[in-house]
Amino acid sequence: MKILFITHYDNMYGANKSLFHLAVLLKTKYGEEPVVVVPSEGGMAEHLSEAGIRVIVHPVTQWQAVYSTPIRFLVKKIRRRKKLIQEVDSLYRMLCDEAVFGKKPDLLYSNSSVIGTGAMLAEKLQCRHIWHIREFSWEHFHMRYFFQKKRVCELYEQAECLVAISDALKENFQQRYPDAKIRRIYNGVSGEYSINKRNQEGRPLRFCCIGYLFPMKHQEDIIEACEYLNREGITEYEVYLVGDGKEAYRERLQRKIQQAGLSQVKLTGYRADVHELLETMDVGLIASEYEGFGLVTVEYMLHGMPVIGRNSGGTPEIIKDQVTGYLYNDMPELVNAMKCLIQHPEKIGQMGMAGAERARKCFSEERNAEEIACLLHENHKSVG
Questions:
Q1: C-alpha span between 230 and 272 (Å, rounded)
Q2: Is 26 in the same domain as 95?
Q3: Which pTM was predicted?
Q4: Which end of the chain is more exposed for a tag (fewer CB within 10 A), N or C?
Q5: Does one domain contain both 138 and 217?
Q6: Residue 259, exposed/middle/buried by CB under 10 A (0-12, 13-18, 19+)?
Q7: Mean pLDDT across the chain
Q8: Are residues 25 and 157 in the same domain?
Q9: Residue 330 and residue 312 in contact, taking contact as beta carbons nearer than 8 Å
C-alpha cells in the first residue's frame, strides 16, 4: 500500500519522532510504501532518507494558529487560507502526474490536527484519509481554525478514522465531532536503556523536566514547588529544566529562580544528549495540564525513573499512581510527592522498575505500528 504521510515541520521532536519510527516499521515489517511530505529540508528529511523512505519537500501551512488579537488572527486567516488552498492544488497536480509521483497514493495520512492539507487533498483525490490527533490545540496552545466550524467538522467526519493518542484526547474530539470515527492508539516510544541503581553517588536527588519552555507546560509550577520545599528546610535536591523556548519566557523563569534564591533549580537549555542526561537523573516531572500523551513521560519510565505528573490530559493513562510514580492535582500534592521521594529514596528503584516494565509492555513502537497496520488493512478491506 502506498501511503502519503504529511507533516508540518522538519525536526525530530515528538510527533515527527513517532511518525519516523512508524514509517520505518510499516516499510520494513509490513511491506508498505511510505512517502513523507515535509515542509523543508532538515533533521526529519535526513533521517527518512537514510532509512530509504522517499521524501517530498513541499510547503505545508497549518490550518490553525495561536489566537492573540482579533486583527492579528484575521490577517493570518486571510493569508494562510489562500496559501493552504494553493498548496493543496500544487500537491494535487503533483500526485496526478505519474511521471513525477508514480502511482497515486492509496491513502493519505495527516500527522497532526494542526494541518488540514491531507483532508482537503484526500477530498480532491477521492482518496482514503487517516488523521492522527496528537494535541489539545485549543486548550494547550489557544489555537483557532481558519475555516468555519461547519467546514472543520465536515473534514474531520469525512476522514476514514481519527487516531487519538490517548482516551482523553479521543473524548475531547468525540464531544466536538460526534459523527467522527475515532480510535485510540497510544504512541510508540523506542528505547532499551540500562536501568542503573540511582543515587549511589552521595549527591542530592535529581528531578528532571524535559520539554519546550512554554507557559502551558507549567515549568513555573515546578519552581514554585521548590520554593515550598526550601521553606520547609528541604534543600538536598536538584531540579533540571531542560529545553529551549522563547527568550521572554526563559527570562521570566530565570528571574523567578533568582528572586527565590533557588540554587537547586537549573535551566540547561536544549540538550541533544537527552538519553545520556536521563541516565544521571532520578525522577521525571511532567507539569503540563493538557498533555495529549506524553512521549517524554514514557522516556522517563524507560530509563527506570518514577514520574510525578499532573492528573490531567493523557498523563494519568501512562502513570499508575503510587506504583510507577505519583499523580497530583494541586500544588500541595506536587510538593508532597517531591518531598516523599526526597525523604524516601528507596522508593525510586521499585517505582522505576515498575515504570520501565509498563512502558515496554504498553507503549512500544512495535505495538503502535501493529495497531496502525491493522487499522490500515481493516479499513482497506472494508473500502475494497
A1: 31
A2: yes
A3: 0.92
A4: C
A5: no
A6: exposed
A7: 94
A8: yes
A9: no
How far from the centroid of its chain's Cα atoms is residue 88's Cα? 25
Residue 267 structural domain: 205-362
How many whole angstroms separate alpha carbon 316 and alpha carbon 326?
9
Assess whether 75 and 170 both reside in one domain: yes
Q: What CATH number corresponds to the domain at position 138?
A: 3.40.50.2000
242, three cell numbers: 531542560
Half-sphere exposure of 312 (CA within 13 A, CB side): 16
The grid coordinates of residue 303 equal: 530509563
The pLDDT of residue 236: 94
Rounded Cα–Cα distance for residues 165 and 154 (Å): 21
The answer to whether 259 and 283 have CB atoms below 8 angstroms apart is no
Is 205 a residue whose pLDDT tops 50? yes
Residue 63 to residue 148: CA distance in whole angstroms: 11
115 within 8 A of 108, measured Cβ to Cβ: no
pLDDT tens-digit readout, 144-157: 999 999 999 999 99
Q: Phi and psi of 20, rounded to 5°?
A: -60, -50
Q: Cα separations (Å) of 320 from 33, 301, 316?
A: 37, 11, 7
Greatest alpha-carbon pair distance for the chain in Å reads 71
Domain count of the fold of the chain: 2
The DSSP letter of residue 315 is G
Can you tell me the distance from the alpha carbon of 313 to that of 295, in angstroms, rounded to the nearest whole number?
Answer: 13
**Contact between residue 106 and residue 2 where contact means Cβ atoms under 8 Å apart:** yes
The three grid cell numbers given for residue 12, joined into one nine-digit string: 525530530
State the cell numbers at 336.
508532597
pLDDT the model gives residue 384: 41
Residues 61 and 147 both lie in one domain: yes
The 10s digit of each residue's pLDDT in 207-260 is 999 998 999 999 999 999 999 999 999 999 999 999 999 999 999 999 999 999
